[in-house]
Amino acid sequence: MSLFHAIGLIITLVALFGYLNSRFIGLPDVIGITAIGLLVSVAVAIIGSHNPAVARWAQQAVAGVDFSKVVFEGMLGMLLFAGSLHVDFSDIRQEKWLILFLATVGVTLSTSLIGAGFYYGAHLLGFGLPLISCLLFGALISPTDPIAVLGILRRVGVAKRLEARIAGESLFNDGTAVVLFLTLLNLATSPDPVAPTAVALLLVEAVLGGVVMGLVLGALGNYLMKGIDSYPVEILITLAMAIAGYAMADVVHASGPIVVVIMGLMVGNQGKTRSMSDLTQRQLFAFWELIDELLNLLLFGLIGLEVIALSLSFGSLLPGMLAIPIVLVARWVSVGVPITAMRAFHVFIPHSIKIMTWGGLRGGISVALALSLPDLPGHETIVAATYEVVIFSILVQALTMGPLVRRLARDREPS
Q1: Which residue in 51, 149, 153, 229 is a FRET match for 79, CA 20 to 30 A apart?
Q2: Are 85 and 92 in contact (CB under 8 A)?
Q3: Domain with CATH 1.20.1530.20 in the chain
Q4: What is the CATH number of domain 69-293?
């Protein structure tokens, strides 16, 4: 099956899943589409056990779309730009030190805890995984997915200040985690030892380079839009920022996610008030909101369908069952340590740690990173564990986030 036919089939299936969910089930679109996609994947697996030809055809159709490339070279730049475009920078600025701490120290701590916990847990189950593979799993599963998080926050109704913390952290921590993942991957695949100073320099180059590049390109985009009054052209400029800006970051080894997030924040705040007419504001923001919604539905539909391409057995699912509590505990610690350290000079609403722990949703970024792994020891185990954590996150954490927030809102005991 050609790439064109595979994409056409998958878009049709995701549209059908969306219809079935809206017509008969009524779950939030992203969750419902993922759930139906997962059910279809399970049904194909069951049918394929009796008729291998069906399983082969379905696997060829899904395998025709390279999930990792679709996410990193197609969707991610636009999704992050759309997400950051709608974030109020004044809210982010008030929480900048906590967000910075969570997106750097928190991600590093989470990666270490998950890596160590998964390493010892996998050995107890009889899966002899090397430590570097477990640390790679920790890095790819640590970032909270801004695509999933922002969609849930719009419906849940958490306090505005807490929403800014969760949204800001999710927008920036994936950039840090991707850099950390690539650094660990370099360590795992390099035939020669890599000096710690080289690792630190790579991290600084990617993160600081991403910040500087985002500021420069964001300022340039705002300047270009300020000089004209044509909303189709201005929308085209923002498309170029999201797609070409992300690609340029890859060329100069800066963090693409950080570049795109900063550009989106600049356009959505400074650009909105200084560079756009009222008509352009309405059209541009409506365009990006639609892009955000459509790409979200396709991404999470793909997450559900991508299970078809995996050869999973019950034994391969055991590490993932162990990974779920490990990831949750690591999230609780990596959020709790910064918040506890900053309580002396920062105000936190009750139950902040609980809400941020349970609201740390994983999604397409983690899956794309897992599928991009080369054939390292424990590759299949890591991919299976990633899918299980992501599916649990979308179908359990996302669905129960609203009831949890409402219940904790009635309980005023400090967290």
Answers
A1: 229
A2: no
A3: 69-293
A4: 1.20.1530.20
